[in-house]
Amino acid sequence: MKNFPQKRGRYTDQAHVRVPTGTFELEHAREGFFSEEASHLYVTEPPSHWHRIEGDLRPRAVDCRKIVTADHEDPDALPTQLLSAAVWCGKKTLSFYLSKRQEAMPYIYKSVDGDEIYFVHDGYGRIETEYGVLEYERGDYIVMPRGCLYRVIPDDDRTFMIIVESISPYQIPDRGLLGPHAIFDKGVLRLPEFETPREKWDQDEYEVRVKRLGRLTKMWYDFNPLASVAGWKGTLCPYILNVRDIRPISMLNNHVVPTANTTFQSEDVLVTTFAPRALGNEETLRLPFYHRNIDYDEFIFYHEGNFFSKAGIEPGMFTLHPAGLDHGPHPKAFERDKANMEKLKAEGKDVAIGKSTAINFDTTHMLFGSAEMASAEWDGYATSWYDQAKEMEAEGKKFGPVY
Ligand SMILES: [Fe+2]
After folding, report:
1. DSSP per residue over 10-36, as a string?
2. What share of the chain has pLDDT > 90, as a percent?
3. ∠ at Cα 43 (37, 47), nearest 5°?
4. Cβ atoms 275, 243 nearer than 8 A
5. Chosen domain end from 206, 224, 243
6. How far away, in angstroms, is 290 Cα from ligand 1 center?
7. pTM higher than 0.70 for the full model?
8. Distance CA 276, CA 37 (A)
9. Domain limits at 284?
10. How far is the CA of 3 from the centre of ligand 1 (A)?
11. Rounded CA gap, 18 and 396, in Å?
């Protein structure tokens, strides 16, 4: 079937453009939409509008603003686990954590379980490492290679960071024919400032904690290992990329799939940034098509703005859509998009711009939530598509295809 599309019934030859009137587009695709193997079904009823759901798989939405993390209460604690993949052949492949640290770590830390990405949703401060000092701020991705010693030192009380640990190393993807300067130029990466002195740490001994398979080994030195490095050379060190430096690929007349804007990748996860960008014009799908992303669980954390395909989701929340369940835009997002397009047309403009920022982690591993995650869950999210359509109908607004 590869490279040979079959066609039956009503369809459009160019995916995402001029969808047949009265239908919604549903993409059934492998490998997060970049595989050659994909089909589009044109359906008259949206596939995420079930009115009841039971079983292990269900869409989940969590308000991280409501979670009080262990490290918020006690500086000695580690971040709080939100989700993790099943242990695979004795290895823990992927874990998600939340940190709201108020005070500096009274220890130095090293994960041997994987590379870590810290995404700074809010707050600023410093991370001291063997390679130098990283100053972090809101919107930063901090990429910390496995085995690097570091210490987080917040400079304010707003710390709100999502941490995703991957057993396979994070890499910056090759941009292929787009060239190396597309999306972001590696010149914008911030590296540790080696000359910045490490904080004077007024104590008799320095504790280092090493995490392996979630278990900690602690050791104590009578010197600060972060301050005893005289110099370094090589290709492995922590670095920072801020989301404002991401210039996403977007098209004025077609929908671009998320994987086109992959920011980092490992063998276990793709990290995509939904940065402000053109969403499309009147004849294209500006909101995502409904999709059956059969190979990936999708975790999206909402950082800034009103996310274009959701209604009822605010910055500081995340959603989890497990592989196998069809999903797509909320009915109220369609309504907002339609009104926005009409307003643009009245102003003589024809391209919609999305101004929100979110970060997306797609993984082939099935993700399981923690009790802390469940404590801040939006209970009605799994049926929110159906419920919103009913609410609109009650207000006399009929929900249906906009094309
Ligand atoms: Fe999705």
Report:
1. S--SSTTBSPPTT-EEEEEESGGGTSS
2. 78
3. 85
4. yes
5. 243
6. 8
7. yes
8. 29
9. 24-62+248-382
10. 24
11. 27
